Amino acid sequence: MPDAATTERRAVVVEDDEDIRSLIEFTLTSQGFDVRSVETGLDGLEAISTFDPDLVTLDLGLPGIDGIETCRRIRETNDVYIVMITARDEEIDRLIGLETGADDFISKPFSPRELQARVNAMFRRPRRSTAPVEEHTPLAAPHNEILDHGPLKVDVDGRRAFRGDEELALTRTEFDLLTELMRTPARVWTREALLRSVWGTDWATDTHLVEVHVGNLRRKLGDAGRLVRTVRGVGYRMDALQGPL
User: pTM for this one?
Assistant: First the structure.
């Protein structure tokens, strides 16, 4: 029996294959989600705007606007969890999907157990509020955890990140990655350790998830992205500060 918190969750399934759509609907409903399903990207965008879901599953190969464009449009206004589902094996499709803001991807065919595990892992991470920040709002409440590293500042509890005075528009995953790296700047994080900490998964084959999201984070950090250093053959760490960037 799903608990009370679980039954409040909503999901939108965007999938044009009837069999796969039914499988996803059944899987999410069994996890306590209230599910709405549509067949096209445009219908998905409309459903998301009216239904305000906590989770979206998004097929890559949709008719009309594809999953990549649909994901990009969702991310313009919404920080909902997005799982991209693809039948294509080419790595570039997976990478492009993640660069538009997808939190995870699953390749067809997949099992209900795999989808459940990935959804549960995502929901163990906090959801960032997308409410606009009012001008002159203080950086943090008095007892919030604040991390500083050179020009970068993170308000952990407020889930806000800054480069100097500029607030950064980070996705949930990018924010969590930056927070983990800044909390222990001397630590070298393996890709597997970041998977466990940020994604809540032990799937070693998904280490490229870390690589893609670290790349996206570096781009958004601008010059400060150089502080996220690759340790060859191991993983990543925050670089030691050596004067202005």
Answer: 0.67
